[in-house]
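USER:
I would value a second opinion on how I read folds in token form. Give me a protein, with the fold worked out from its sequence. Write it directly below this note and I will take it from there.

ASSISTANT:
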Amino acid sequence: MQEGKGESADSISDINITPLVDVSLVLVIIFMVTSPLLVQAGIIVSSSRTTASEGQHTKDESVNINITQKGVTVNNEKVPMDKLAEVLKARIPKAKDKMVVVTADRDVLHGQVVKILDISKMAGAAKIALMRDDKLPKNEKKKKK
């Protein structure tokens, strides 16, 4: 009888690492599948600095979009919103480094600016810059005086 007890004691002392390896591999696969989902797609936007004395691009070398309450202009030409994508697809490849400069008035809604940024990116813009116009609208100039 003692021999039987000794044999069973030896088999209990062996550690089976197969379940540990299985669980580890499943966790690695889960991390590999979910990690690309954590990286969100977005637009890298460089903001203008008021103290910048010289930039890498001039306004003439890039596509300039100006957004006002009256409408949208591309390189000082008024463009309807439904034709904006077509105009940008034609002009962006000709611009230096496919740069788009967006300037908006203070009264323009945030959603409209984001929509134009999306249209620019889909039209092929590699770089997008947001410019700030320090000029106040006429009604705000009167209030300050």
